[in-house]
Amino acid sequence: MQRRNFLKGASILSASSLLAFSSLEAFSKEKLKKGVKRSLRIGHLTDIHLLDKAEPKAAVIKVLKELAQHTDRPDLLINTGDSLMDMNRQPKDRVQQLWSAWDEVMQHNAIPMKSCIGNHDVWSLAKSDPQYEVAQKDELYGKAWIKKKLGLPGTYYTFAQKDWQFIALDSIHYSAEKGGYMIDPEQMLWLEQQLKDIPKERPILIFSHVPIISVTPLLYAAQSKPANELRFPGGDQHIDVMAIKSLFKKAGNVKVALSGHVHYVDQVSYLGTQYYCGGAVSGNWWNGILDDFPPAYSLLDLYEDGSSHYQTIYY
Known about the structure:
Elements: H1 3-7, H2 15-33, E1 38-45, H3 54-69, E2 76-79, H4 92-106, E3 113-115, H5 132-136, H6 144-150, E4 157-161, E5 164-168, E6 173-175, E7 180-182, H7 185-197, E8 204-207, H8 216-221, H9 241-251, E9 254-259, E10 266-270, E11 273-277, E12 297-303, E13 308-313
Parallel strand pairs: 1-2, 2-3, 5-8, 8-9, 9-11
Antiparallel strand pairs: 1-12, 4-5, 6-7, 10-11, 12-13
């Protein structure tokens, strides 16, 4: 990818984004004919993996401008994690460089943003690193830095907007013993209580970095292994999926679940919940197309009856 390709059209809406907005508007008009109004428009960004280089910074600025310049722009941006290229096993000064790039780019953002934590958003060092013991005592170590920079009230939290309730999950709890990502027991109890407390007539949107239910993890794994050798892809999908799915089914009003992580795109409808896995803003980690998926962001319209419409833009 060359810099001129990223910058081309940065100040105007791209053809693909115009088509996406048009598709959303057509769906909205059909809903309105049935007496159902749109509650919110969401811009979904995931796996930005921002680098302190000109090309990635220009690309993210282009996306932010496309989202903001439309007359019917999103009410809210949801960022489902991996905001920086990598905070894992990086020295503090390197992480600071990446956050400086983030601050520079976000000066171009005109829309409120809510975020959750991705696996690359956790500052960590290897135990063999000479700075490991020092870093352990740093107030920014672990998930503290991402919480501070993105203004998260906690690693998981909830908020309301218009007719909808939103729940951000922290899916970055990797169990080597169980073979994958999950939410911790305390968070599971919290989620269960939240779903009990939220009025049943109020639709809920859940967002997490790692997909809860998705086709993409299996297809991603199938790129490197024959189908008959595949096991449950716990590195790319929640291993506690059955427990979470049961909570959603019992609640009855979890209408949407957003995620990222895999850099692939899919939509799965299961037991009344629409699971949308968004494409990566960074595509193949800023190396063009990953398998069948170019760099992307998405738009999501939420309606007062709990329905939704999701559109991906390959920018």
